[in-house]
Amino acid sequence: MTMSNAALPTFEIGLNALAAILNKAEAHAKAKKIDPAVLLNTRLFPDMFALARQVQIACDQAKNGSARLAGVDPPRYEDNETTLLELQTRIAKTLAFVKTLDASKIDASGEREITFPLGPKKGQMRGWDYLIHFVLPNFYFHLATSYDILRHCGVEIGKQDFLGAIPIKIT
Amino acid sequence: MTMSNAALPTFEIGLNALAAILNKAEAHAKAKKIDPAVLLNTRLFPDMFALARQVQIACDQAKNGSARLAGVDPPRYEDNETTLLELQTRIAKTLAFVKTLDASKIDASGEREITFPLGPKKGQMRGWDYLIHFVLPNFYFHLATSYDILRHCGVEIGKQDFLGAIPIKIT
Fold first, then answer.
1. How far is residue A119 from each of residues A90, A123, B12, B170, measured CA to CA in Å?
2. Is residue B122 within a helix (H) or strand (E), and if so which, with residue range?
3. Between helices A51-69 and A84-99, what is the axis angle to 10°?
4. Distance between CA A156 and CA A17 in Å, rounded?
5. Segment A113-168, tens digit of pLDDT
6. Distance (Å, whole) CA B123 – CA B118
7. 3-state class (DSSP) for residue A109
8. Do B48 and A151 touch (CB under 8 A)?
9. How far is CA A122 from each of CA A119, A125, B22, B51, B145, rounded to the nearest angstrom?
10. Among B46, B132, B153, B10, residue whose Cα is nearest residue A4
């Protein structure tokens, strides 16, 4: 029950689940002869982000959230992915970055003030609040919306795909 | 940084945000002369749950998750809501129930095995894993999907509505 324990496995399980969902989307596109670019550009409403951007932001919540808690400047990624393969690379790059962080630094960040860009403004939150009330809900929002877009496109995925490889015993 | 601190404020902020989002949906329906029942019955794909069920399940994740961690049998709700007002009552009832729970019992549940129904089967997880890798992702999934359905219907809500009254200072 530490900060790093609430953050790092969550990002790892969630991003691996997202990667597996995108693999199912790719198989679906192939089977139905759909151009995968159509999926990447699908959005649920004209002024919502399309799938590709949802995946990029999910990655950025994991990358930026964990980096700021660890007291490290997060690397900036280009947001130039236009294919499912490039999105998979983005996810893999994010997972690899998150693994480089010092868990003990994250554990010590609960009471520290975290300042982070928020559009043209800046947000400031206590480390624990930042993780629990900003990073995790945002991370899950973009994960769930990626899932919802693909479900809306007819990709056959279920709640288990969203939850991913969680430590559960089913009997 | 306790279990109850990861659970209780999250449910309170999230459910209050959901209630406010449903209020905006009601105002939207009134302004556009849409029968609110249409919103409640909207789903993103034929075999996904409609809005009303998404709201019920978001409530149940908060109710059942926090009750099981506190070692209390969760009350069963009827799932018979058919109006926005009834869904608001469901949310209020859930918030009131969550407030009755003993936070110290939840704090002591990190290592305890939690057994919970999972369709026709049973799931078993350590308390901490149950909260972080099952209850919270499911809670946010149904919150985000409720939001996505309403955005898809044209209701004018934004990320701030989804996050709700989080402890943030914006400068």
1. 22, 9, 26, 11
2. strand B121-126
3. 10
4. 14
5. 999 999 899 999 999 999 999 999 999 999 999 999 999 999 999 999 999 999 99
6. 6
7. coil
8. yes
9. 7, 10, 28, 33, 28
10. B132
Q: What torsion do the CA atoms of B59, B64, B69, B70 make, to the nearest 10 degrees?
A: 90
Q: How many CA atoms does the CB half-sphere of B106 hold within 13 Å?
A: 24
- Residue of A137, A144, A170 with shortest CB distance to B163: A137
Chain-centroid distance, C-alpha B124: 21
Q: Name the B residues in 40-99 with CB < 8 Å from any A CB.
A: 44-45, 48
- Establish if B166 touches chain A: CB-CB under 8 angstroms: yes
Q: What is the pLDDT of residues A77-88, one digit of tens each?
A: 999 999 999 999
Contact A166 B110 (CB under 8 A): no
pTM: 0.97
C-alpha closest to that of A10 among A103, A87, A86 = A103
